[in-house]
Amino acid sequence: LKPDATRFTAHVDTLLESGCHGVVVFGTTGEATSFAVDERKALLDALLASGIAPERLIVGTGCCALSDTVALTSHAVLSGCRTVLMLPPFYYKGPSDEGLFRSYAGVIERVGASALRIFLYHFPQLSGVPITRGLLERLSAAYPTVIAGIKDSSGNWDGTAALIATFPQLCVFPGSEVYLLQALKEGGVGCITATANVNAGAIRSLYDAWCRDSGRLEALQGQIDDVRQAVEQHSLIPALKHIVSLLRADSSWRRVRPPLVPLQAEPAERLAGALTRAGFRFPKSS
Amino acid sequence: LKPDATRFTAHVDTLLESGCHGVVVFGTTGEATSFAVDERKALLDALLASGIAPERLIVGTGCCALSDTVALTSHAVLSGCRTVLMLPPFYYKGPSDEGLFRSYAGVIERVGASALRIFLYHFPQLSGVPITRGLLERLSAAYPTVIAGIKDSSGNWDGTAALIATFPQLCVFPGSEVYLLQALKEGGVGCITATANVNAGAIRSLYDAWCRDSGRLEALQGQIDDVRQAVEQHSLIPALKHIVSLLRADSSWRRVRPPLVPLQAEPAERLAGALTRAGFRFPKSS
């Protein structure tokens, strides 16, 4: 269950080549919270040592402990990765906006880097700690050059649309590609999504078609949605790792750290079948 | 916002002298998750260096990352603290019992210390990850000498009573002293409670009265309940820190790490008034 820097680096490389403008390392899908601060630092070091451009990375750095978040954020910025995705501290539920403001402000002040750009991470289903509009307003006013945007993984499109409308100065990313076209139409800037790990090309095609105003947008969105729907029949992270294992013909990719568990044989087979019907082609397994 | 080993040590000392049989260091009230692994190790080292007996400590060691939980648990055991209180990994919600079993088993196997005794930490309101009876059964069967008990902070007495009845081989602690007498009557072994930070003497008196079968049990429980009720009008952890600051005439004690915030002036005054009416006497503030 140790981090595997070689496979990690190869995977990020593939994602950047297959259509992703950038990659979030250490988000929810990357099992960030399942790894220690030192493990995460070492993985980022390995990634950069392999030659991947720091400008194409967004580094997940939000931990429960202020000191951990400061350590990871400082390390990212000093490594040339100025953009981070930051969970709020997520053990204490129902914190006040004042407490969350102090948390983010405390990190910003302690890191003390003018280059720092933060995307806040709104994922109430897992963190249990929503980023409220009031908090966002206050942070954006206090640190206008640092607070760069928000990843909205709530899955609530109306909330995402309200964020886009309320905060034109911020980059708003829905946390799923099923909202990509809607978000682009409203003024969102793209999406940050787990499924890009296995479907980056198709998602990028929709983005490019939007930029070229080339029509077919709804059809492209529909194809992307079909893939997402097939994956969402299963526990998302083990399912994605299973698909990567099939795409790379490398069963090592199925490993997850507890409390996650790999997909079992029967659902794995159903998933592969659904994706094959959606046009995926898998190499013969090794 | 750095850890204050001097005040920490003095406080643990006071608790052990004022009636606590033992002290959990790095539980929810101790803001464990707000501190980094190295900060927590250094605080435990300072505590033991001051001469506090390791047998009287229970060390909170459960983190989101398996590697962090292993590091903290190994450090505790190697320091002579064989008993730990272990949260499940708490970022991913709705994990399977299989995943949680692998998590605890993974820690036990990696720590590899026959002396280790684990109390599981059931606090679904904050962790979002309940310890189910099925998980407890499986862990207790697989590691009968390691799995020693459970702290049930759910606040659901029926659930606590069911744990006591179902697992006679385990030490069951309710997470609040309001259930102490009921728990002792049913076969529980005591309580592990935040409010012991400010009311250890009264809680111990009830425990001792129970052991001596000396009557007055309901009256003692009633007095304890009054204090708890006064504290529960407020945000629990900041309120307790405020009370400690009053008892020690030391305003430094009011500090909390974000996302918690200290009690404001008006509720702080109400709290002090209610406790004075309940019989608390505070020294003149410094």
Describe the structure.
The mean pLDDT of chain A is 97. In chain A, helix 4 packs parallel to helix 6 (133-142). The first copy, chain A, has a 6-stranded parallel β-sheet. The first copy, chain A, has 12 helices and 6 strands. Chain A has helices spanning 5-17, 37-49, 66-78, 97-111, 124-127, 133-142, 157-166, 180-186, 196-212, 217-232, 236-247, 265-277, and strands at 23-25, 57-60, 83-86, 117-122, 147-152, 171-174. In chain A, 50% of the residues lie in helices and 9% in strands. With 286 residues, chain A is α/β, with parallel strands linked by helices. The interface between A and B is large, with 38 and 38 residues.
Descriptors:
homodimer; 286 residues; alpha/beta; 12 helices; 6 strands; 50% helix
What is the helical fraction of chain A, as a range of percent?
40-55%
- Please trace the helix and strand order of chain A, writing H or E for each element: HEHEHEHEHHEHEHHHHH
Estimate the mean pLDDT confidence of chain A: 97
Total DSSP helices of chain A:
12
Characterize the main sheet of chain A. 6 strands, parallel
Largest interface: A-B, 38 and 38 residues
Question: How would you write the strand order of the largest sheet of chain A?
Answer: 1-2-3-4-5-6
> Could you name the ranges of chain A where pLDDT drops below 50 across 5 or more consecutive residues?
none
The N- and C-terminal alpha carbons of chain A lie at a distance of 21 Å
Note the beta-strand portion of chain A.
Answer: 5-15%
Q: What's the gyration radius of chain A in Å?
A: 19 Å
Write the layout of secondary structure elements.
Two copies of one chain form a homodimer.
Chain A: H1 5-17, E1 23-25, H2 37-49, E2 57-60, H3 66-78, E3 83-86, H4 97-111, E4 117-122, H5 124-127, H6 133-142, E5 147-152, H7 157-166, E6 171-174, H8 180-186, H9 196-212, H10 217-232, H11 236-247, H12 265-277
Parallel strand pairs in A: 1-2, 2-3, 3-4, 4-5, 5-6
